[in-house]
Structure formats: structure tokens, C-alpha cells
Amino acid sequence: MTMEWHKFKFARRSQQLLPALLFLLFLAAPLRAVEFEARFEQANKFYEEGKYDSAAGAYDKLLEAGPVSGAVYFNRGNALFKMGQLGRAIASYRQGEQLLPRDPDLRANLQFARTQARGGSPYQRDYWQRWLHLMTLNEWTLLTAGLAWLFFILLALTQWRPESTRGLRPWLAGIGGLLVVLGVTLAGALNRDYFTTYAIIIAGEADVRNGPLDESQTSYKVRDGMELTVHDRKDGWLQVLDSAQRSGWLRQDQMLLFEPAAARKPKS
After folding, report:
1. Does domain 2-122 bear CATH number 1.25.40.10?
2. CATH fold group of domain 197-262
3. Residue 182 pLDDT greater than 70, yes or no
4. Do residues 53 and 80 touch, judged by C-beta distance below 8 A?
């Protein structure tokens, strides 16, 4: 009986505190927004004054405190670019791109940084990558799901009213073909955003070796800002593949690992 009374008393006290807690949370939200805005403006002021190192540090603190913001990643990328840290700038732009996929300024700066990383050679995606980047993963998912529902509704209609089969057949064929294309595209977007790890070089120049040892022969070199695909890991080394499909091994401390779907800071 005593234990039951204590539980009841605690429940009553919690219920009495709940409105007060909700009120405090209601007040705290705008206060946090005001604080975030003030700190963001301070970081921007550092940037405008040419204090790029201080600006980058201030943006880092904002990202650590949350919430994650595409604008913060974008401005952080600008500060890192001004500091000559191409790889880190590209990583920041790419994180911002996950949150602001169609922002023209962000896309332009990312394109410019990638061109600089290639020594002035314009960065160009192949046709498949350009197709994948027309929409975000969520948008491809919604479009594919919507088209699938339409296909099955029409299919059910042909079963319900067999006399309409002839008129609906061309629609079913067209939608079915488009559904296959969207399904393949969705699989590609899923692979890009959830199953592929990218490495972005942050060293001035790095040797890609034939094996995961310092003594292994150099296969080719990569510069700061180059983006590679990771295929394997071993004892602090990563097996990577470049855009020319050349494979080799790099020390992990020479790059940032970038996982788009995680929407978090790259891990060194």
C-alpha cells in the first residue's frame, strides 16, 4: 500500500509540473533561435573581416551545438576555401548540398572548388550522375512510389472492368516502362547516398600506393580536394578508386570520409 501511495503522489506532482515544463520549452525555442542567429552573425562578421580561421571555428561550434543548417555548411565552406583548404571546403559544400540541393550559390561554389582541385580543369559529372542529381533521394522515392500506385490502380481497373483493358493497355505499358527507369534510378540514388563512402583528400598531395604499406610502390598521386570512392579498409589504409577507375591505397589520415546520408561532419 505504501509503495502504491508513493507512485500516485509522484504522478500527481509530475502532472502539476507538466504545464510549467511545456511553458519553459515554449520560451526556450525562440531564445535558442535568437542565440543561434547572434552566433551565426558573429561568425559571418569574422568572415567579412578576413578572419577566416576564426570564422571556420565559429561555424564549427554552431554545427556542434545544432541544429544542422545548410547555410552554416555553405559559409563554413567559403571560409575554408579562403584558407586554401580545398578538400575541407568541398566536404562542407557537399554537406550543405544535402540540405540545400538546389541552391544556385552553393552549387556554383562547389563547382568552382572542384575545378580548382583539378588544377583548373572543369569538373563535369557523367550523364548518369547528372540524371541522379536532378532530384534528391526523397524526391526520387516519392515519384517512384506515386507512379507505382498509379500503375497498380490502372491494373486493378482492368480487372474490375475488362472492357477497358484495350484502352488502358498503352498507358500500362508506358507507365510500366517509366517505372522500370525510375526503379533503376532510385537504386542508384540509394547506392550513392546510403551504401557508398567517399574520401576527400585534405593533404597537399598524396601518394596512392599499390598496397596498404608505406613501402608499397606509388601508383599515382592525388591533390587536395580530389574525391575518391572507398572500396576497402585495412590497418589505417583505404582502398580507393578515382574517376578514371584507377585503384590504390591511401593512408586514412590524408583524407576525410564523407557519408552523405549521415549528414554529419566527415571523419578523419
Report:
1. yes
2. SH3 type barrels. (2.30.30)
3. yes
4. no
